[in-house]
Amino acid sequence: VRMMADGSAEYTKALGLDRDLTGGGMGVRAFRAAMIITDGEVKYIGVEGSGEFGKSKAETILEELKK
Questions:
Q1: Cβ–Cβ < 8 Å for 14, 2
Q2: d(CA 35, CA 46)
Q3: pLDDT exceeds cutoff 90 at 41
Q4: I need a labelling partner for 66 at 20 to 30 A (CA). Which of 1, 6, 8, 41 fits?
């Protein structure tokens, strides 16, 4: 498991997962997401909408890893 930082939001923007919260003083942020990457290939990506926590939660990722 790797937690990846993206302080300048370059990766986030390249993936189209950015949202601009500068109006609230928070800057550019990423939507909550989790990925399974094997040998450089994205096998699963779970991106959450506002207030959702089903596609990126640990239980979902563990189930995806079993496939």
A1: no
A2: 6
A3: yes
A4: 6
**DSSP code at position 32:** P
Q: Could you tell me if 25 and 31 are in contact, meaning their C-beta atoms sit under 8 angstroms apart?
A: no
Beta bridge partners of 57: none
| DSSP secondary structure letter of residue 11 | H
State the average pLDDT over residues 30-47: 94
pLDDT confidence of 7, banded at 50, 70, 90? confident
Under 8 Å CB-to-CB from 54, ≥6 apart: which residues? 46, 48, 60
- Model pTM score: 0.74
DSSP state of 22: G
Residue at 47: amino acid letter: V
Place of tokens 């979902």: 60
- Taking the C-alpha atoms of residue 14 and residue 2, their distance in angstroms, rounded to an integer, is 19
